[in-house]
Amino acid sequence: MASFPCSRWSVLRLLLPGLLGVLLSAPVRGDPPLALGGLSVEKRAEILKRLIRVGPGGSDRTTRVEQVLKALRDQDEEQAVAILDQLEADAAQAARERESDTFRFLLSNLTTAQAERLHQEFHYQSAAILYRQSLEMTPDWAVRERIHLLTELGSSLRQGGKPAEAEAPLRQALALSATLTPPDPLVAASPLQALAVLLRQQGRIAEGAPFMERALTLRRESLGDRHPLTAEALHKLALIRDAEGRFQEAEDLFHQALELRQVLFGVQHPETAQSLDNLGAFLRERERLEEAEPLLLQALRTRMAVLGAGHLETAATLNNLGLLHQAQGHLDQAETRFRTALAVWTARLNPGHPNRLATLNNLALLKQQMREFDQAAVLLRQGFGLAIEGLGRDHPRSRELFDTLRGLLARTGRCGELTALLQEDWTATHRQPDAREELPLADCHMGQARALREAKRLEEAEGEFQKALAIMQRLQPGSPLARQWLGELAGLLRDMHQTESAAMLEQLVNAMEKGRPLPAPAGR
Asked: Are the beta carbons of 452 and 461 closer than 8 angstroms?
């Protein structure tokens, strides 16, 4: 049990009643030294000195001090010494524990400082390891420090591409902040905001919005409307309103955050650049390209000047400018921006980081727009492989790359590669095929069939028609699209001078239009 340092006088005051009782029962000067049962004044004095050195403590220690004094009054030296030995051992152990706690807490602070440096340098996974170590060394009574460490651990895990692992420490930090007495609004606001950001990233917008609203309220009440942390909360709430589709509210909040940061920090500051970048990206998504461009260019100039070309925040602006140039139709400029951003992501982030994968996906989509399909496929396969390795197949970024690759293979008639991709994914995820994934495969075969028919490769075209119709018969039998495709096959058979088979198919199409189901596709 922990004790606290006190003066010699306070120790004597604590022990005074018992000491008086013991001394009054002592023999007067001149009596034989072994009087009163053999317990001499010298022996009593030695025990009392040891007792004073033990010092005060909790209720358990006070009780045992009283037991020592009673044993002295009863002339029971053996009992007094035994209790005193245990008291001294307990006091020594408490002192060692206090010393150990102090050392561990100091070591925790040093480890935390190193973790924060790594986090600022975007080495998020290494920072998370050190934050965990700091938590292990931080005593339970240091509640505010533990809240800070849990919040930073959650943020490092989220930014390091491990959002699934980030939620538990953030919720633990939030629960701890509720135990503070008296309540501390500023301490509580940090895990609230971090949890809101995580939930937005996971697509759990409705769940995260109340946390961010509460964080902004706490900061406004504690710090006022003109504080950097209030500006940060305004900015984060704007991102959530954007994700909710409440675009006018989002735009108003973005502007409030930008204006406040310009007042607090000036134009040439990373915080101001962040607001410029996000407002520019927001306007670009609303197709307000002329308004977005000067904001993004100013954000890039600031980040280049203040942070440098190789900084991750600079890469984020480059990516957003790439999207803007693509929307403007300036495809070569867009490619330059994407490739420059990708070089920074590759140098500074782990291979499967969501930011790197997002830019890979953007560049692949641009290559499709430029009709450079082979390069697009290479980029998408690379990105999907990195996503599987770093994030797993079910991560939203992984599925985004998978969907883009699937669409590319379907549109470019690479039906064999598409079939292999789908089969491999179904096997790896232990899922059954569904219509959303199989219909693009049917479209692929149909596109190939039309191209082959136009090229007069009629027998090959018929095979592709059959594959497309086999999928359509399983997924959407009797649908207007199925009837259309069946009619196209009938036309192909007429081109091949198979008039009897063509006529039979045409009769079937007529029957289907009257509500009869689609039979098996006709064959040669």
From this structure: yes
Q: What is the pLDDT of residue 50?
A: 75
Residue type at 472? M
- What SS3 state is found at 491? helix
Residue recorded with tokens 């940061």: 261
Greatest alpha-carbon span in the chain: 142
The angle that helices 77-120 and 41-54 make with each other, rounded to 10 degrees, is 20
182 φ/ψ angles, rounded to the nearest 5 degrees: -70, 165
Residues 6+ apart with CB under 8 A from 392: 398
Q: Which is higher by pLDDT, 268 or 472?
A: 268
How many angstroms separate the first and last alpha carbons of the chain?
92
d(CA 507, CA 48): 116
Q: Is 444 exposed, middle or buried (0-12, 13-18, 19+ CB in 10 A)?
A: buried
pLDDT tens by residue, 146-196: 999 999 999 999 888 788 899 999 999 999 999 998 889 999 999 999 999
- Give the alpha-carbon dihedral of 452, 457, 458, 460, to 10 degrees: -70
Cα separation, 487 vs 507, in Å, equals 10
- CB contact at 8 A, 257 and 231: yes
Answering whether pTM is above 0.85, one says no
Q: Which of 316, 386, 318, 311 is nearest to 348 (CA)?
A: 311
d(C-alpha 517, C-alpha 63), whole Å? 92
Is the separation of the CB atoms in 14 and 56 below 8 Å? yes
The pLDDT tens digits of the residues spanning 417-459 come to 988 988 888 888 887 777 777 888 888 898 888 888 889 999 8
Nearest-angstrom CA–CA distance, 330 and 336: 10
CA distance 78 to 85: 11
Residue of higher predicted confidence among 84 and 157: 157
3-state secondary structure 497-518: CCHHHHHHHHHHHHHHHCCCCC
Residue labelled with tokens 């809101």: 196
Chain-centroid distance of CA 409 in Å reads 32
225-232, Cβ contacts within 8 angstroms, sequence gap of 24 or more: 225/260, 226/260, 226/263, 226/264, 227/264, 228/261, 228/264, 228/265, 228/271, 229/186, 229/189, 230/260, 231/257, 231/260, 231/261, 231/264, 231/271, 231/275, 232/193, 232/257, 232/271
Per-residue model confidence (pLDDT) at position 150: 95
Q: Which of 146, 202, 208, 204 is nearest to 175 (CA)?
A: 146
Element (H, E) at 433: none
Block residue for tokens 């006070």 = 62
